[in-house]
Every structure is written in C-alpha cells, then in structure tokens.
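@channel sequence for tomorrow's demo:
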Amino acid sequence: MPYLVAVLLLVLWEVLNRLTNISSVILPAPSTIFGALVRHHEVIAQNALHTFITAMIGFGLGVVTGVVIGFATGISPEIYSSVYPLLVAFNAIPKVALLPLFVLWAGIGVVPAVLTALTLAFFPIAVNVATGLATIDPEMNDLMRSLGARRDEILLKVGIPRAMPFLFASLKIAISLAFVGTVISETVASNDGIGFLMMSASSSFNVPLVFAGVFVIAVMAVAAYGVCSLVEQRMVRWAFRVQP
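structure tokens (generated this afternoon):
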C-alpha cells in the first residue's frame, strides 16, 4: 500500500503539473525530476554517498551517547527526575543555533555535520531508554525482590528487556533525524553532500536538481528506517502483538 500511494501521488502530481503548465522553476513535474536524476546521476551518487556516510557516523555516535545517557538516567528515580528536564531543555534548543559553534570549533566539512546529526539523534534514544528502565511495573519489582533478586539482577532481567522495545522504536526516529541534521549542516558548512548540492543547484535556479536531491534524501532515510524496522522485528519479536 505505501508504494501504491506513492505511485498514485506521483501520477497525480504529473497530471496536475501538465494541466496547469506550472513552470519547472517553481514546481517541476516528476518526469522532469527523474530526468535530472538521470543526467546528474554521477554527481548525485557521489554526494549521496557522502551524506549517507556522514549521517551513519552521526547516528552511530547518537546511539552510543543516547544509550549511555538513557541507561544512567533510568537506573535511578532520583537521577531520572534530575536529568530528564535538562534533556528536554537541550532538545528545545534549535540545532541550527548550535551549528555556528560547531563550525567555529571544527571548521566546515564533515565534523559539524556529524555533530549536528548526533545532537538530533541522541535525544529520542536517551529519553526512550530512560523511560523503559524507569517504568518497571511495581508488582514485577516486588515479585523479583520477594524471590531474593538484587537490584542489579532486576535491572538485568527485567529493566533491560523492557527497555529494548523503547530503544528500537527510538532508533527509527533517530535515523531520520540523523539525515535531517546532516543535510542541514551540509547546506551551511560543507563543500560536499546532498545538502551542498541542493544549495548549489538552487543558486543557479536548477530546481529539478533540487527536487532530485530531496528525493534521494527521502529514499535513503526510508531505506535506513526499513533496516531498523527489520532489526527491531528480529530482536524484539516477543514485544509485538500477535495478529489474530
């Protein structure tokens, strides 16, 4: 169904574009965008690979940072109540406002893009892991204690398995945010990547190439999301409700 809906939307877009004769400088038709993809496939592929690698590095660092912060926050109610508001406050800061600092510290290039992807990706992971660990059922906790389980055993045998579905749900969000952060940085402080390509194309009014860049970013993000979904289904299959 998602593929069918996407095809129908593209067909509708193409028909409306031809009926209204909208200029390609304003809104190119899908056929025009596909033509730009074919004509500029080499430069698009080169920049797409750069964006993909940068986003994956930022995502990987975000996973490590988010899991560590989430684990440290969720193991104690006192730490959770103290650190959680700080995480929310940090997430409220527009990451575009941090980008000039990243450029000042590391210059233009890959590092600011990785840092931007990291700051966007780690928050949902940290929050979900902390929530999963901090919301163990009181009855289960009392039962484990009555059976002689120590606090670390409760965390290992109950808390971590409970947090796993939260973790994988947050990974699907974080992987998309990593691409967002990478492209934002590339449009401002990079000489490579899809974001840089889109900015260069827009400065020369090559709107079909801009839309081609948007299409490539969407495809990469959806593909990465699909991989996270497959890993989630294999790792935490027990958490999914069986359909009748």
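heads up for whoever presents: The chain has one domain: 41-234.
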